[in-house]
């Protein structure tokens, strides 16, 4: 793991990493600076991300042509690529956390980001990175994956609007008991995904599992019913009776990506990996990062129970 951390930190300090961010802050998966930064953050090594890469990422985000989430075709200007010229909710939620961990006041440096999450919150408090979900009538097809990273990013929100977003997102997680897929027609596929949420994955990037949801909710620390988390907490305790958490799946497997070729950006290319990602995502092996999170989450849940905040 240490070698992977050092390799990613070294890469992010390089001219090549800055050039990659300037070419595209996000693509390609899983081996652009975006993913190296996220991986370092998730293993607790955000301090190893060079200031040069942080500044380049802030500038890269601010260069996005679309600073809103496109829902309708007319939301995308002529000549713009909705996949490369805009962000989605989970991507912004993830990078917000990384930049804040690196000392960036994201709301001040990128003020358009602060307006993002409330603008796209659905009636039940969730979000969805599928623009078509916002055009559906008669149901609310919000997404756990689309909601968890923005919720995490806003746990320490400093404005009334963002705190209101955060609290509504928490109620969404509570309503889903951290484990239930969408009951809607439009987002029916999430019910299949939910069958795997009890298998932890790491690094998470934008993927969801039940420990991630529980950890975020107890960090929020406001009152919620024990019944909303009891099943998840019990299942996690049974899965890891010795307190050592183990990844049960690799969320990054099976994906393709956009790659920059001489002829331009090409979709459907094999996604590539890097040493830290491989070292941190071993299935069936004890995960130090997941174990630290599970330990902290258990202790925090007990504190909330003792204080009567969770009942």
Strand order of the largest sheet: 1-2
The main pleated sheet reads as: 2 strands, antiparallel
Termini distance?
Answer: 39 Å
Poorly predicted sequence stretches spanning 5 or more consecutive residues = none
**Overall 3D geometry?**
globular
Radius of gyration: 19 Å
- Counting helices, strands and paired strands, the structural category is mainly alpha
Number of strands: 2
Order of helices and strands: HHHHHHHHHHHHHEEHH
* Percent in helix: 40-55%
Query: How much of the polypeptide forms β-strand, as a percent range?
Result: under 5%
Discrete helix count = 15
What is the typical, i.e. mean, pLDDT?
A: 97
Q: Which descriptors apply to this entry?
A:
311 residues, two-stranded antiparallel ribbon, single chain, mainly alpha
Could you describe the 3D structure shown?
With 311 residues, the chain is mainly alpha-helical. It contains 15 helices and two strands. The protein has a two-stranded antiparallel sheet. The longest helix is centred in the C-terminal third of the chain and has 19 residues, at 288-306.
What is the gist of this entry?
Helix content is 46%, strand content 4%. The chain is mostly helical.
Question: What secondary-structure arrangement, pairings included, does this model have?
Answer:
Elements: H1 2-12, H2 15-23, H3 33-42, H4 51-62, H5 89-101, H6 106-109, H7 111-114, H8 116-119, H9 144-153, H10 160-175, H11 189-193, H12 210-220, H13 230-239, E1 256-261, E2 264-270, H14 275-280, H15 288-306
Antiparallel strand pairs: 1-2
Helix pairs in contact: 1-3, 2-4, 3-5, 5-9, 9-10, 12-15
